[in-house]
Design a protein that fits this description.
single chain; 405 residues; alpha/beta; Purple Acid Phosphatase, chain A, domain 2; 2 domains; six-stranded mixed β-sheet; globular
Length: 405
C-alpha cells in the first residue's frame, strides 16, 4: 500500500500534465503534426508511465551497485517528466504573453510556430538528458585551483590537496567506471585527500561494494572526511540501534582509510611548521537539513595563528557561520550543491538552476580574507546523470603568498 499510493498520486498528476501538453501539441499546424502526436503518445506517455511505475516499485529493492537498467529507466522517467513540465510551463507563459499582446494590438500571432519551437526545444532537452544518463555520470573532470594565503607556512608551500565530495554511492552502477575515478585521483599524487560528505543516499550499506576501491586511495599526510546531510538519513530512531548504526558507519570510513572529523580537528605537521585541519558535522541552512555542525567545538584546542582549513559539507555554513566567526578560517571546502547535475561551465562563467537556491554553489569564493571552494561532487542523486556539471575531482595547490616568500 505504501508503494501503490504514491504511484496513484503521481499518475493523476501526470494525466493532468499530459492533458495540457497534448492540447498544446495540437496547436502545431504542420505536415508532421500527426507524426508529432503519435510520437508523443508512444514515447512520452506509454514509456514514461511504464518507467515511473517500474522505478517507484523497484526503488529501495535494487541491489548495490544499482542495476544500470534501473538507472536508465529511472533516468528516462525523470527526464521525460521534467521535459513535459517545462513544455507546459513555457506553453502557458506563451499563451499568457500572446493573450496580452492580442488584447492590446490585436495582431495575428504565429501560435503554431511557437508551439513547434517549444516542442523541438523539449525534444532537444530530452536527448541532452539521455546523454547525461548514458555518458555524463562518469565523465570525471579534474579542476586545478591555486589557493594563495599569507598565513600558510613556507614548509607547506605547494601542498597538493585533492578534494572529493558527494559520492552518493547508492546511485552508482558500474564498479569499473568508479575505479576510473579512483585511478584519476591517484594519478595526481596528492599530499592530502579530503572528502566533504554525503557518502551514501539513505543507508550506510550502500558504500559496501566500493570500500575496497576507496581504500586504494593513499596520501602521505592522510585521508580525512566529514559527514553530509544524506549520511544521517538511515539512522534509526531507537537509541540502541542508532549507536550500532553509527558504529558501523564509522567502521566503514576506517576500512576506507578515512579519519572522520566530527566537530574536531587534526594538526598537520611538516617539520616544526603546522596547519590546522578542522571538520564539522553537517550544518545546512533550511529546515530540512541537519544542524549538528559546531564550529566552536571543532576549534577547541587549536592555535588561532595557524593557517586553518575547514571541511564543511554545506556551503551555506560558510555564509552563515564561518564568515562572521571570531576566528579566521583561511579556507573552507564544501560540496552539497552538485551544480544540480545540470548546467554549463566555460572558463570563469558557470550557470545552473541551483544558483537560485545557493549563493555560493560552485568553485572558489573569497570574502573577508576567508576563502571557500565548492566541489560539484563525484556521484549522483535523484537524476542518475550529469549534463554540463560533470563529476569533479578538485586538485588544490596551497601557496604561500607572503611578500617574503
Amino acid at each position: 500500500m505504501n508503494r501503490i499510493f504514491p504511484i496513484i498520486v503521481l499518475g493523476v498528476i501526470l494525466v493532468g500534465v499530459d492533458s495540457i501538453c497534448f492540447n498544446f501539441l495540437g496547436q502545431i499546424d504542420t505536415p508532421i503534426n500527426r507524426i508529432v502526436i503519435i510520437g508523443y503518445w508512444l514515447i512520452f506517455i506509454i514509456v514514461t508511465y511504464v518507467s515511473v511505475v517500474w522505478s517507484l516499485w523497484s526503488y529501495g529493492r535494487q541491489s548495490h551497485p544499482r542495476s544500470p537498467v534501473f538507472n536508465l529507466i529511472a533516468g528516462f522517467a525523470f527526464s521525460t517528466m521534467s521535459v513535459k513540465l517545462l513544455m507546459v510551463l513555457f506553453s502557458m507563459l506563451a499563451t499568457l504573453i500572446f493573450s496580452i499582446i492580442t488584447l492590446i494590438w490585436s495582431p495575428s500571432l504565429p501560435t503554431s510556430l511557437v508551439s513547434l519551437v517549444i516542442f523541438c526545444g523539449g525534444v532537444t532537452l530530452l536527448i541532452t538528458m539521455i546523454y547525461g544518463i548514458s555518458f555524463g555520470k562518469y565523465n570525471y573532470k579534474v579542476e586545478r585551483v591555486n589557493i594563495n594565503s599569507e598565513r600558510l607556512p613556507s614548509a607547506f608551500n605547494g601542498l597538493k590537496v585533492v578534494q572529493i565530495s558527494d559520492i552518493h554511492s547508492g546511485t552508482w552502477d558500474d564498479l569499473r567506471l568508479v575505479k576510473k575515478g579512483i585511478d584519476m585521483i591517484m594519478a595526481e599524487s596528492p599530499d592530502l585527500i579530503l572528502f566533504t560528505g554525503d557518502l551514501v543516499n539513505t543507508h550506510k550499506d550502500e558504500i559496501d561494494p566500493y570500500i575496497h576501491l576507496f581504500s586504494e586511495l593513499t596520501a602521505p599526510m592522510g585521508k580525512f572526511a566529514v559527514l553530509g546531510n544524506h549520511d544521517y538519513m538511515g539512522v534509526p530512531r531507537d537509541e540502541i540501534l542508532r549507536k550500532v548504526y553509527w558504529g558501523d558507519l564509522t567502521k566503514k570510513f576506517e576500512l576506507m582509510g578515512f579519519n572522520l572529523l566530527l566537530n574536531s580537528f587534526e594538526f598537520l605537521q611538516k617539520g616544526s611548521a603546522q596547519i590546522t585541519l578542522a571538520g564539522v558535522e553537517n550544518w545546512g541552512d533550511g529546515r530540512f537539513f541537519p544542524k549538528r555542525g559546531d564550529l566552536d567545538m571543532a576549534l577547541i584546542g587549536t592555535d588561532p595563528d595557524n593557517f586553518t582549513l575547514l571541511m564543511s559539507h554545506d556551503p551555506s555554513h560558510w555564509e552563515h557561520k564561518v564568515l562572521n566567526h571570531d576566528r579566521l578560517i583561511d579556507l573552507t571546502l564544501s560540496g552539497h550543491t552538485h551544480g544540480m547535475q545540470f548546467g554549463f561551465k566555460f572558463r570563469n562563467f558557470a550557470w545552473s538552476p541551483v544558483k537560485y537556491r545557493y549563493k555560493y554553489w560552485i568553485g572558489r569564493y573569497e570574502k573577508f580574507k576567508r576563502q571557500l571552494y565548492v566541489n560539484r561532487g563525484l556521484g549522483l542523486l535523484a537524476f542518475p546523470g550529469r549534463v554540463g556539471m560533470w563529476p569533479e575531482i578538485t586538485v588544490l595547490t596551497l601557496l604561500n603568498a607572503s611578500p617574503d616568500n
